[in-house]
Predict the 3D structure of the following.
Amino acid sequence: MARLRIALVVVLAGCGPSAAKQAADASEELSSWDSTARLVNTAQARGAIPAGFAEQVRRAEAEARAAAEAKLRKAAVR
Amino acid sequence: MSKLLEIALGIVTGIGGFLEAGSLATAAQAGATFGFQLAWAIGLGIICIAFLIEMAGRFAAVSRHTLPDAMRERFGIRFFLVPLVAVGLVSFLVLASEIGGVCLALQFASGIGFQWWALPVAALVWLFLWKGTFGMVEKGASLLGLVTLAFVVGAFRLDPPVGQVAARLLPSLPQQDSAKYWFMAVSIIGASVSPYLFYFYSAGAVEDGWDVSYLGINRLVAGLGMTFGGVVAIAVLVCAAMVLHPLGIQVSRYEQIPLILVTPLGRTGFVLFIASLAIACFGAALEIALQLSYLAAQGFGWRWGENLRPREAARFTLVYTVCLPLAGLVIVTGIDPLKLTVFSMALTALSLPVTVVPLLVLMNDPTYLGERTNGWLSNAAVLAVGFVACVVALVAIPLQLMGS
Amino acid sequence: MELGLAVLDQQVVDRHDRMMGKVDGLVLETRPGEPARVTHIVVGGTTLLWRIHRGLARWVERRRGTDGRPDLIPWSRVLRVGVDVKVDVDSSRSPALHWERWVRDHVIGRIPGA
């Protein structure tokens, strides 16, 4: 997945600054959420956060991912 | 009450009352995205608000006027309408953000979506204002707000490189992502220099019957209260910089922010975060709603006073009675509370010249202040920050809007 | 006359030191060959609206009728001018507080605990 994202960014770099910037931002957001998910799992595993809250973060993550992936697709089309 | 106790109480109130939705969200975002680099923006904001608070207190104590009252008098109704509308609109958006903050804290605790909490929270804020006295609102909320010291504890637990943090208190240029950097800097300043803070402080000085003998207290409370309060905001930045930044986590949703206290303090950190968010935002909502009432009532000459019974100051009461449910409705719409908070902070910065210049004119008018008008330093500090923030906001806000 | 102008937009309090509004307007008397004099201070009503936007003020007056008239307080009743303007009037009966009483009776007063 990470390799696909890097490939997309490289390809889009040729499409003009705005599209590349959008793609880079969306990519950054996706990896930010990858890290968030790992941090949340670790925290939940040691009982630092309740399951209910971990669920809320995962729901937020899903929404944010959907938005970022849509942005990536839009930038790729341009 | 002895003067020493008043000073202590004033400073403690400043610490407990400093953090709210705006300063929390902007500091967390800045720490996550840029590490310690934006610490200077918090520092600059603190210096500016400390000067403004001192001025607001000095004005009330010497002239025995509140700010809106004097503004209407000095500028006439047409010019007065400009800061009135500007401060009113910006404060209303910030009020909605604070209600949003409380709602999110309740969502984190209960799992029930924040939109469901909006009207009940607005109603609770209303009830506290309806039944409460000024002292209760001002001191009670801020004393409870001391729970936000949890961020200072968390920051220490994370063992930050203090030298590096101190170095970042000096302004620096961004290496990348300039638009985002300056937008965040401007939002941080808007969060620190919110007009509702000094309007509320001035109304409080009049409600508490301050006179010329309070000028020394005023200076201490303004300077130390804001400085120590600002330390809490810096602590939030440090926590985010130590926990989120190294992992490449950028704050785009409120749900990511509690993690900055969870890493150093575990489950206790999680509970303390929820308590801090709820109490800090609730206290701010109380103050902003009251401040909107003061603004209208003092500007139009209506009866006002939080210590009066509602029927004794009907129009004054009507203002917060109408604003609170409206602000609650903004949150019910499901608008992203984080985006709302950060944008209203940026708008605050943009409107600083309009909200601050009338105050500066008054502060240099001997008719109101006799010999105690502003020195050149106070004028320079506030003017510089106000105009620079506005100019940067003019550029950064559109860029941010285009980018997202 | 100068005192009259200085008094515009100042807070007005009644004989019991209760707030009753701001000096929203002044009534001047002009006589040939003599400087203008302030004869009344005007508190309340649509006076303020006239200074902001005349069209809006006219519209409001047409719909409102005679309620909420401003209070014209003779200059002779001004007791003191300082931080505020104290007048020898009982505000509980003054038309300046018409809207305050209306809000109290129809809105705020109806909520329990007022």
